[in-house]
Fold this protein.
Amino acid sequence: MDFFSMFILFFVFGAVIGSFLNVCVYRIPEKISIVWPPSHCPKCNSKIKWYDNIPILSYIILGAKCRNCKEKISLQYPAVEFLTAALTTLFFFNFGLTTWTFCALFCLYVLIVISFIDLKTYTIPDILSIGLIFFGLAVSFINPAFTGDWLAKFTSSITGASIGFFGSWGLAIFCSALIKKDALGGGDIKLMGAIGALSGCWGMANALMIASIFGLICFGILAALKKTPENGAIPFGPFLSVGLIINLLYPHFNLLLLGV
Ligand SMILES: [Zn+2]
């Protein structure tokens, strides 16, 4: 298959998954089943026809409005679809068609859902963050971030998970006492555990650094635009997710070691 057909195939596959991730972002915090009932307009409840449910394209064709009641459709829908499609394509071209590609893609999809739920609700559902810790441990033996035999790989994964979880827990208690305010959310602590399980201790340090840099840039932009949220809080989950996604894509890249 030539490059162009492969690109289209991966992109369409990713866009379809992205469409499902939108359902997850919308329904998991509301504790509604992610498979039933089928998609419907949140305002007028009309069932969305298959031809109005084509990733990215339907949003453009419908002019960002529900066909039935003309309610505005959130930009989140095509954004998640496009992001998922683009990153899926990147993962496939980066790793080829291997078992690990699908494991890494599964993590990517969970991270996209985590990020958008955190942006909307300031929380990360346990099922996603804790689920990712166990998934990371289970697939550690094929994870290219780790070296050695399966036991060595598993040890790196569980050490990373423990340090990520308990380390940030300790840090959260310390910082909260210092500033007398909740410093790091429980969701972020579990997500740090997942980052450790999937990329080990060095990977975790790398992800944390990337997350802080992205976080500071975003905070700076929001402050310059005078758009910082009223409570001053910005969810950290999306930034940690960016860090882990970069780790998954480039398991041997480390920002901390660049200066050495
Ligand atoms: Zn409607």
